[in-house]
Design goal:
D-Maltodextrin-Binding Protein, domain 2; seven-stranded mixed beta sheet; alpha/beta; 2 domains; 339 residues; four-stranded mixed beta sheet
């Protein structure tokens, strides 16, 4: 079992990094100058996480391990499609990206089983151990408390298809937003007993009334400003903004929601493979997983942790989501173009 000695305090690291971001700077640069260090003390991480997630974790890893980390940022599909086409070059590890995306590109990864495997939620684990789950990300509804009374807020997925919400829903383009694609598939799964998948997409796109957003941040702003009454987004995104947006409420659907995790994977031919394994062990360990729950608005993937909020889960049909992605997005584009 690989261990990294504890030498610092995560909350202190977060406070320092948060202050630097507020001042317009960044304590850890995505493109950082490479110091003169031996190769066995280096690690190259490709990540689709936002800085507030990867910075404190990587900074702490550096302090504890003595390993210098180079960070390359980008969108999940942007990074993985490039690696798939051109090779991983100097890349050691992919940190971030939904497991549905990691599964599509699993041929790019070196199988690895962490020492914490028995303690991790295996619902969405890779049968080939191509990736390791990192954090769970529930999909939730948000609503503007000035525009929607408590009794009138949507409580089930099927309610999003009701004509009364036409033009009042904030939702991001599933071609651009991985979480919106997950939400769309969750909507299909939750209503499949009543509607077929094509009918669900048709009804939902009609309800959006031609107003589709670019990303999850836009959804929060649209609901908080009152431009839209309700929205569909990640719990993490909603909770981060709840204190800043006084008139915004959150709903966990009573019929359940998906909590599809993101993950981490070691690239084949990684030049610093041992250090990549060390980082993988670090992020599924107690300290980082507690950090997710206590500071970063995410849910741990560890089964031995008590969850902060008990969420009724729908098991996301990963095989369906992958096999039907092109069909779903093609129909989406066709219908959205007609609005």
């Amino acid at each position: 079992m690989i261990k990294i000695p504890m030498t610092s305090n995560f909350k202190r690291i977060i406070a320092i990094l948060s202050a630097s971001i507020l001042l317009g700077g960044c304590a850890y640069n995505a493109v950082n100058e490479e110091p003169q260090m031996p190769e066995d003390k280096k690690l190259v991480i490709y990540t689709s996480h936002k800085a507030n997630i990867y910075e404190p974790i990587i900074k702490e890893f550096e302090e504890r391990s003595g390993i210098w980390v180079k960070v390359v940022t980008g969108g999940t599909n942007e990074i993985l499609s490039k690696v798939s086409e051109e090779g991983s070059a100097d890349a050691d590890i992919m940190f971030g990206g939904g497991v549905d995306s990691l599964e599509v590109y699993k041929e790019c990864f070196e199988p690895y089983v962490t020492s914490q495997e028995a303690n991790l939620d295996s619902t969405y684990s890779s049968p080939e151990h191509a990736y390791t789950v990192f954090s769970k990300l529930p999909i939730v509804f948000i609503y503007n408390e000035k525009l929607v009374i408590q009794a009138g807020k949507p409580r089930t997925w099927a309610e999003l298809l009701a004509s009364s919400w036409k033009g009042k829903i904030a939702f991001a383009d599933p071609n651009q937003s991985g979480s919106s694609y997950t939400a769309l598939v969750t909507l299909i799964q939750a209503t499949e007993a009543v509607y077929g998948d094509e009918e669900v997409i048709r009804k939902f796109v009609k309800n959006l009334d031609g107003d589709i957003y670019g990303g999850s941040g836009d959804i929060i702003d649209a609901v908080a400003s009152g431009k839209k009454s309700i929205g569909v987004t990640l719990e993490e995104t909603a909770l981060k903004q709840m204190g800043k947006k006084a008139d915004m409420g959150i709903v966990y659907p009573v019929d359940g929601t998906t909590t599809v995790p993101d993950g981490c994977a070691i690239f084949k031919d990684a030049p610093h493979k041992d250090n990549a394994k060390l980082f993988m062990e670090f992020i599924v360990g107690d300290d980082v997983q507690h950090l997710l729950e206590e500071e970063l608005y995410r849910k741990s993937v560890r089964k031995d942790f008590k969850q902060s909020i008990d969420v009724k889960e729908i098991e996301y049909d990963l095989n369906y989501a992958i096999a039907n992605r092109e069909k779903i997005l093609s129909l989406w584009d066709e219908l959205a173009g007609e609005q």
